[in-house]
Amino acid sequence: QVQLVESGGGLVQPGGSLRLSCVASGIILSSSVMRWYRQAPGKQRELVASISGGGSSRFDGSTVYTDSVKGRFTISRDNRKNTVYLQMNNLKPEDTAVYYCSANGVYWGQGTQVTVSS
User: Fold this and answer.
1) N or C: which end of the chain has fewer CB within 10 A?
2) Which residues contact 34 (CB under 8 A, 6 or more apart)?
3) Dihedral angle of Cα 33, 86, 22, 78, to the nearest 10 degrees
4) Would you list the DSSP string of 59-116?
5) What are the tens digits of pLDDT across the range 5-48?
């Protein structure tokens, strides 16, 4: 049974930082394409960042970001910990959303709320 469990969300002021974690079980993380999505109230779910699998080291993977987070967010992985991270810096109010982790576009976590507000 595949499980993805996100954590690390919360309330932060504009300009602040958060690091989201997604712990995976029941899948081989090293060979999986992992993605972070977000969904703001009244909006469609959008892809935030992705990292490929199949690398030779525990941290390997090529990354892709949506334009609005480039230079502010960093996706990374630690295959030994079966965990994917999303480091979010210089957060803006428009980053407020529920953030979801996904494995191979098939499996999804329950989401973690990120609220950016003063």
Assistant:
1) N
2) 22, 24, 50, 51, 53, 61, 75, 77, 84, 101, 102, 103
3) 70
4) T---EEE-GGGTTTEEEEEEGGGTEEEEEE-S--GGG-EEEEEEETTTEE---EEEEE
5) 999 999 999 999 999 999 999 998 888 999 999 999 999 999 99
